[in-house]
């Protein structure tokens, strides 16, 4: 499929379906821009490099995590700092978020983080070898709450199957949302997805794992009485 502009109620698409983002305007702060210019060469990954070998990228063969849509990077930085024995790849299209992440990574001296500033669809299809990931994380994706916009939601059966092939057998897909309707949608998609099984024997939602940081956004929602739903499914074949 070819790219389409967002018009009316039509979904924004790429050659492989619904994009993993909605392009929003936003300028980097001076600090974010300086961090981006100073650190991109060290931490940045690009589509033009093609399929990566994670062992070469990180110089070791450790647990490899992928976070899709890391926003301003708070969770990714905290997870990477708390688990220096693991490696993390973040995907985010919005430059202010990439700049903010690179600023934090540099200031904290983290060597276990790399970043893509492109659509996650291209990262999955063009940049990551099959069965290279131990965990994929998608936290609080855009819920598209209106029913007529549900087709724009990132968590769809086709997208999940493409992620499946990038996970090793036994690898985990971790989803989180603060929209109950989207949580129900996620559970329906995941429960029907070939090659995945819920880590919860009851088939329900999971308690928040200790290694998923609570963001300021999530805390604000909790203070307003919003619920949060975590789904953890592992690849079975």
Automatic annotation (TrEMBL):
Signal sequence segment: none
Pfam families from the UniProt entry: Methyltransf_4
Entry GO CC: tRNA methyltransferase complex
CDD domains, alphabetized: AdoMet_MTases
UniProt EC number: 2.1.1.33
Pathway: tRNA modification; N(7)-methylguanine-tRNA biosynthesis
SUPFAM superfamilies: S-adenosyl-L-methionine-dependent methyltransferases
Binding site for S-adenosyl-L-methionine: 67, 92, 119, 142
Example GO molecular function: tRNA (guanine(46)-N7)-methyltransferase activity
UniProt keywords, alphabetically: Methyltransferase, S-adenosyl-L-methionine, Transferase, tRNA processing
PROSITE patterns cross-referenced by the UniProt entry: SAM_MT_TRMB
Residues given in the record as substrate binding sites: 146, 178, 215-218
NCBIfam families according to UniProt: tRNA (guanosine(46)-N7)-methyltransferase TrmB
Summary of the function given for this chain in its UniProt record: Catalyzes the formation of N(7)-methylguanine at position 46 (m7G46) in tRNA.
Protein family according to the UniProt entry: Belongs to the class I-like SAM-binding methyltransferase superfamily. TrmB family.
PANTHER family membership: 3-DEOXY-D-MANNO-OCTULOSONIC-ACID TRANSFERASE/TRNA GUANINE-N 7 - -METHYLTRANSFERASE (PTHR23417), PENTACOTRIPEPTIDE-REPEAT REGION OF PRORP DOMAIN-CONTAINING PROTEIN (PTHR23417:SF14)
Protein name: tRNA (guanine-N(7)-)-methyltransferase
């Amino acid at each position: 499929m070819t790219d389409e502009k967002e018009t009316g109620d039509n979904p924004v698409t790429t050659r492989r379906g619904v994009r993993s983002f909605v392009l929003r305007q936003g300028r980097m702060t001076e600090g974010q821009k300086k961090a981006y210019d100073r650190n991109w060469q060290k931490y940045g990954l690009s589509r033009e490099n093609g399929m990566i070998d994670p062992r070469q990228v990180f110089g070791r063969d450790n647990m490899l995590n992928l976070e899709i849509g890391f926003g301003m990077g708070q969770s990714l930085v905290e997870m990477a700092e708390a688990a220096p024995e693991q490696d993390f790849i973040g995907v985010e299209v919005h430059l202010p978020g990439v700049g903010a992440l690179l600023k934090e990574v540099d200031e904290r001296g983290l060597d276990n983080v790399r970043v893509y500033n492109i659509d996650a669809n291209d990262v999955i299809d063009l940049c990551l070898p099959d069965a290279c990931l131990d965990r994929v994380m998608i936290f609080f994706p855009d819920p598209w709450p209106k029913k007529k916009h549900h087709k724009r939601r990132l968590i769809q059966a086709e997208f999940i199957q493409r992620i499946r092939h990038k996970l090793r057998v036994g690898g985990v897909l971790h989803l989180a949302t603060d929209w109950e309707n989207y949580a129900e949608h996620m559970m329906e998609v995941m429960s029907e997805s070939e090659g995945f099984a819920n880590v919860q024997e009851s088939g329900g939602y999971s308690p928040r794992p200790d290694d998923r940081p609570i963001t300021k956004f999530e805390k604000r929602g909790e203070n307003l009485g919003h619920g949060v739903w975590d789904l953890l499914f592992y690849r079975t074949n």
